[in-house]
Each structure stands twice: as structure tokens, then as C-alpha cells.
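Contributing new records

If you add data, match the layout below exactly. Sequence lines come first and carry their own label; structure lines follow with theirs. Keep one chain per record. Anything else will be rejected by the validation script.
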Amino acid sequence: MTQTTPRSDLEDVRADLFAEQDALDAIVAGLADEQWDLPTPSAGWNVADQIGHLTYFDGTAATAIIAPEAFSAEVQALYAAVGEGAVGGDAFTLGEFRQLPRDRQLEAWRASRRRLAEAAAGLTDATRIVWYGPSMGSKSFLTARLMEVWAHGNDVIEAVGATREATDRLRHIAQLGYITRGWSYAVRGETAPEGEIRLVLTSPSSRTWTWGPDDATDTVRGSAEDFCLVVTQRRHVDDTQLQAGALGRHWLLRAQAFAGGPTDVPAPRSA
């Protein structure tokens, strides 16, 4: 009887990243040209811009893995152009994509994904990748890419009125959301209040996922999908079924699982 070797954590997140990309591709591949122009919840961005964002950063992620010096030079060019007021950040990262004919935009994203997949194939647990902030371990790096495609995919799905089945691939994003609690404060120049938080989530397959000590000061409970929507700033906590005490709510009102400067959580839709 042949025994299969279990996938490593790195192999697991790598496979889940590609599966999440394919799930979004299946939605956008069937869109009419005019649907690419629909506005999304990200102010000033249409559907094409969401895919353009993924195209640019999947491409730079590949460069960061295989040519870190070239990546660092590209980052400096971005910061210089934006800092000197020559262009805005969107113009720098989306400009070329926006000039592409509509029928070439999806293929541009697919090409960036192929580059990333080829680059990611050589990653090991010991690899560290330079990025826009601190360098990242390979698993965290690919998890961040998975989070990006899922979150921006959510914006696309809302814009076009599509549906997407939640999967247990969310576990990677939920874990990233939990471990970035301190970052959510630090990026705002704040110090996290004292006390530990336990996270208890119900997965799409009805499993229970937990992080944090049993005797934590507070517990955040709810669905994994709701939690991931909050930490990627796609939902206000009041628009979810998440349950939390004062300490947990204090965090969820500023939760930010992604790099970059501080950004505001969306206003409650139910207000």
C-alpha cells in the first residue's frame, strides 16, 4: 500500500494560494467588458483596478523572491515617484495595467501569477524575502499573497454580484489576522492594551479553530469568514456576528492584517 507524505505547512499555503487565485479567475473570466468598469468598495477603484493591483504585486512578489536587488530598486523608484509628487501610488502600480486593452488585462494577471508560482516553487522554510516593510519568512509571505487575492476578490465579487463559497483556506488568513494584533496598534503609533485574547472561530467546514491561551482576558468568537472580513478591513465588526468583550472589540476596530500605513476600517453598513 502506497503512503502519501503529508504536505508541509509551506506546501499547504502555496497550494491554497494558487487555488484561491483560480477561484477568482473563474469569476472574472466570465465577466463582460462593461463589468470590468463597475465600481468596487475600494474608493476610486473599479473591477479592473482590483485585478491590476493583484497583477502588479504578484509580479513584484516574484521579483522579490528571485531578484531581491531588482525588487529593492523598484521599491525605491516607487517611493521616490510618490514622495516627489511625480505620480500617485495608484498611477505607479496601476498605470501600465490601465493602458492595456480589456481583453489583455486578465492574461496580464495570469502571467504575473505564473511568474509567482515559478518563483515560489524554490522557496524553503528557511527562505526570507525582502518586502515593502520588514523581510518575511516564506510561509508568511505566501499567506500575505493569499490574503490579498481573497480580500480584493471580495471587492470584485461585491461589485459584480457574484458569490464565492468560503473554504478552509481561510485558516491561513485567520492566523495572520490573529498574529498581527500587535501590528494593528503599532502601525497607528499605539500600544496594545494589556491582556491576552483568545480567538475561537468556526471554519467553513464546521471545524473549530483556536488561537491564544485558555485563560485569556477576552475571547473573540464567530465565523472564520466574518473574522477574515474584519482583519482585511472589508467589514466593520458591527456588520458581522462576531462576539467580543471590550478588549477584543478595541482590537477589531483597528485590526489590520496587511502591511503599509494605517488605514481606517470601513464604516458600519448598518448605521
